[in-house]
Structures are given as structure tokens and as C-alpha cells.
Amino acid sequence: QELRPKSLDIKQEELGDMVEKEMASTSEAIEDAVRRIEEMMSQARNESSGVKLEVNERILNSCTDLMKAIRLLVLTSTNLQKEIVESGRGAATTQEFYAKNSRWTEGLISASKAVGWGATQLVESADRVVLHTGKYEELIVCSHEIAASTAQLVAASKVKAEKSSRNLLRLQECSRNVNEMAANVVASTKSGQEQIEEKDTMDFSGMSLIKLKKEEMETQVKVLELEKRLEGERVRLGELRKQHYALAGTYDTTEEGEAKPAPAPRRGILKKPPLAQKP
Question: Which parts of the sequence are annotated with region: Disordered (predicted)?
């Protein structure tokens, strides 16, 4: 009973409706994601300025481009799915076709859910980054997840599609476009993170005279600590090298304490090997 496929517990009508509902739900999730990004864009322009505004706009623009690419991908996938059903069902109904190919149908539903979930997670991560309550790494991970779920959706569609199908070629082009846009999100996120971190560490414009003096003293302490640690590591490195040369047999201490290679053995000391005796 546990090994029975889960699709056997679902009626034919329910399985067919699940595919259509899931594709529609994915499209709605992407449309909602685009609207939320536009709202975040206007909010960022009102609440931030300078470098932070530039970084937020760059990241949100790349996220918008990615959402548009995903929307086109889902639309093309829906058209290809209809083509597959029409060409493969024969005299059967759409629900019967989905039930007959239940494993493929479940893979299609799973891939569609993964794409919609990835889009939603990307928007939530972008929202937290703009509000400075999230991590830039979350956006990078979400971009990788979207690329993976896109590959899953293309693979699920490619199983039943004709090799010469135009919709399949369009879907593969959309998949490559999604991967390119996801890479742009990763690139803009990394460059923005570096830009923000550099600004945060070097921006002293809002500090008072007392605060500046305190920061200066703390920085001097850190410099002295690092110099002392560096000197200690140099001494440690020198001792490690001496021990290394000694164990390798190439270390010889002179009167000045300098190291030089050990002298090579004289040739005269080497003896010739004895000649082999005749039997």
C-alpha cells in the first residue's frame, strides 16, 4: 500500500484540474512578484539615497528582468503542454491523458510548483535586502534555485514533446534566458554587497568630533595588535623554515648564523661496486 503511486489515489478529473490550477497559480505568483518588486522600487526611492539607492535599484531591476523571463517561460511551457496533450491523447479526454501519464503529470506539477516557489522566495529575499534585514547570500541562493527549477520544468516538458516542436525550441530559449537573468541577479547582488560594505566601513561623514577621536584610537589599537601578530607570525615562519631545512638535511649553521646548503660528498670517497664473480 505504501509503494502505490500517490496519483492512484487521485481521480482523473482531479489530476487534470491540478495541472491547470498549478500552472495558473504559478502565473499568479509571478505576476504578484512583479507587482511587489515595483512597490519595493518606489519605496527604496523614497527611503534611501546615494549608494544604497543605486545598489537597491540595480538589484531590483535585475530581479524584475528575471521575473519577466520566468513569466515568458511559464507561458511557453503552458502552450507546449497543451500541444503535448492534443497530439498524444487521441480519442481520450484531457483528464484521461493526464491520468494515463500520471508520473509525467506529477513531474510537471512538481516543476511548476518549484518555479513559483522560487519566484516568491526571491521577492521576499529582495524585500529583506532592501530593508537591510536580510542577507545578500539569500538572493544568490534563490537565483540558483530558480535556475534549477527551470531546468526541471524544461526536462519534464521535453519528455513528451516532439523534437521538432517550435514550442519546445521556444521553451529551451526561455530557459537559457532565465539562466542568464538569474546570473545577472547574482552579479548585481555581489557587486552591490561589496559597494555597501566598502561605504559602511569608510563613511565618517555623520560622526562628531568625539566619535571620530574614539574611532581613531580604536583603529590605532587594532593596527598595533595586527603588527604584533604579524611580527609573531614572521618569527614562527622563520623557525618553521629552519626546522624544515634541518629535517631535510640541507641546513648548516655558520658562525654568522646564516644558513647555507650542506656540502656535497666528495667523489673520491665513493667506492666502486665489487665486480660480479664468475660462476
Answer: 250-279
In this structure, what CATH number is given to the domain that contains residue 83?
1.20.1410.10
Cell, residue 93: 479526454
**156 and 101 Cβ atoms separated by less than 8 Å:** no
Instruction: Pick the closest to residue 67 from 24, 22, 115 (CA basis).
Output: 115
Residue 254: DSSP 8-state: -
Is residue 62 in a domain?
A: yes
Q: How far apart are CA 87 and CA 97, in angstroms?
A: 10
Is residue 142 domain-resident? yes
Structural domain total, the chain = 1
pLDDT (tens place) for every residue of the chain, 279 residues total: 555 555 445 555 566 677 778 888 888 888 888 888 888 888 878 877 777 888 888 888 898 899 889 889 888 888 888 888 888 766 567 777 877 887 888 888 888 888 888 888 888 888 888 877 878 888 889 899 888 888 888 888 888 888 888 988 998 999 999 999 999 989 988 888 887 776 655 556 667 888 888 888 888 999 999 999 999 999 999 998 888 888 876 545 444 445 455 455 454 444 555 555 554
Residue type at position 97: F
Q: Is residue 169 assigned to a domain?
A: yes
Structural domain for 169, as ranges: 14-198
For the chain, the straight-line distance linking the first and the last C-alpha, in angstroms and rounded, comes to 83
- Pull the grid cell for residue 158: 521535453
Instruction: Give the 3-state secondary structure of residue 93.
Output: coil
- What is the rounded CA–CA span in Å between residue 161 and residue 130? 41
